[in-house]
Amino acid sequence: MPVHPVRADHADMERKQRMRLAVAGILGALVTLFGVLNVDEVDVNWILGTWSTPLIVVIVLCLAAGMAIDRALVRRSSSSRRAGR
User: What is the pTM of this model?
Assistant: First the structure.
């Protein structure tokens, strides 16, 4: 008996969804482990002074700043392309 094409597509979509969930779970576990291993206090020279801060906070703030800069540059680049520059 031949496999129905709709059922084959549905099974393929379920397999892809399971793979995405597995990868997301592994990445989530790695991020959690990274955070747990980086809770030591470090002295950070902030703009307004020096404070003892957990290392994971410094890492997350740097990641957020990098993402914000990237988004701003991408937005600027796409707007200048639309303007014909």
Answer: 0.58
Give the integer Cα–Cα distance in Å for 14 and 7.
Answer: 10
> Mean pLDDT across the stretch 43-61?
90
d(C-alpha 55, C-alpha 33), whole Å: 14
Distance CA 16, CA 28 (A): 18
Element (H, E) at 49: strand 49-54
Q: CA nearest 53: which of 64, 62, 63, 42?
A: 42
| CA dihedral over 58, 64, 69, 70, signed as positive or negative | positive
